[in-house]
Amino acid sequence: MWLIFAQATGTTERFEYEAVQESLPVEITPLDYLWALTTGWMSLLYLPFLIWMMYYCVRNDPGRFLWLWIILLTQPFGPFIYFIARWLPSSQVKLPAFTHRWTKGRELRILETATLQIGNAHQFVQYGEALRKAGLKEKGLAAFLKALEKEPDNLAALWGAASLEYQLDQYELAKEKLEKILKVDESYKFGDVSHLYGKSLAGLHQNEQALAHLEKHAKKWRQPEAMYLLAKLQIENNQKEAARQTLQSIIVDLDSSPKAIARKHLFWRSRAKRLLRKTSG
Questions:
Q1: d(Cα 152, Cα 175) in Å, to the nearest integer?
Q2: How far is 90 from 105, CA to CA, in rounded Å?
Q3: Which of 174, 178, 249, 262 could be 197's S-S partner, Cβ–Cβ 3.0 to 4.6 Å?
Q4: Mean pLDDT, residues 27-46
Q5: Angle formed by the axes of helices 207-218 and 224-236, nearest 10°
Q6: Do the beta carbons of residue 225 and residue 268 sit within 8 Å?
Q7: Containing H/E element for 210?
Q8: Residue 253 — left, alpha, or beta (φ > 0 → left; ψ -120 to 50 → alpha)?
Q9: Using an 8 Å Cβ cutoff, are 85 and 115 in contact?
Q10: Is the predicted pLDDT of residue 17 greater than 70, yes or no?
Q11: Where are the beta strands (DSSP E) in the chain?
Q12: Statement: the pTM of the whole predicted model exceeds 0.85
């Protein structure tokens, strides 16, 4: 009887112990997280990503041995560290502008220090360009304007300030600076200045001037965006046949261009096709 009672008591205590264990919060360790990534449905995403990063590292990275150790020993975070630190900077993929304020923070501090210590127009232009890339438009514009205070005819400062003023909808100010650049060098920035000047005129609703300028612009430079804006202005000016020819030239130019350029301007090709259908209807 005592033996039976002891066994029953032991069984009861075991059930109580298991119930208590089940009621305790489960602690997930890094090993559990790694196991979850490498097994089950998550492995369908993680393992190919891991193999891709390792393959790219071995094939392309001059520091492949160090980074392979980092990828393998710091899992599951290693592949993501490599992706951010090595793959993105070496690829053709561009991060959104706002991410530069994190990835380029040290560079911004160095350039700001140079403006304080040296303070020439060149330093302010460099700082303004870095701020522009980081998406800090107002601060970038202030840096370019500071450069213009020191060198009013500095083309890089005029271009930087004008491009940011356009983005901030300050079309009249942008137009004035772009005119100064065009008087000195019509080909500055390989037609980008001329293109932005046409966009500024359109932004000011000076459509006749914008149309005349872009018609002249298109004879020398054929950016798809500029051609598309020209076609829209031609339609507004009841020049539908000219607009159709402009839109068709966008499509033909992109169809005959290298694949990399065609992919880059795929958006404008599709827009040109849609507008051409509306115009032909």
A1: 15
A2: 19
A3: 178
A4: 58
A5: 140
A6: yes
A7: helix 207-218
A8: alpha
A9: no
A10: no
A11: none
A12: no
Q: Which residue has the higher pLDDT, 103 or 25?
A: 103
Instruction: Quote the CA–CA distance of 77 and 36 in Å, as a whole number.
Output: 13
Q: Is the pLDDT of residue 180 over 60?
A: yes
Q: Where residue 28 falls among pLDDT bands split at 50, 70, 90?
A: low
Instruction: Please give the Cα distance from 158 to 138 (Å, whole number).
Output: 15
Cβ count near 15 (within 10 Å)? 10
Nearest of 148, 133, 111, 95 to residue 162 by alpha carbon: 148
CA distance 145 to 165: 11
* Token code pair at residue 77: 């975070």
pLDDT, the chain, mean: 84
Higher pLDDT, 11 or 188: 188
Could you tell me which residues come within 8 angstroms of residue 246 by beta carbon, excluding any fewer than 6 positions away? 218, 227, 230, 231, 234
Alpha carbons 59 and 17: distance in angstroms, whole number? 55
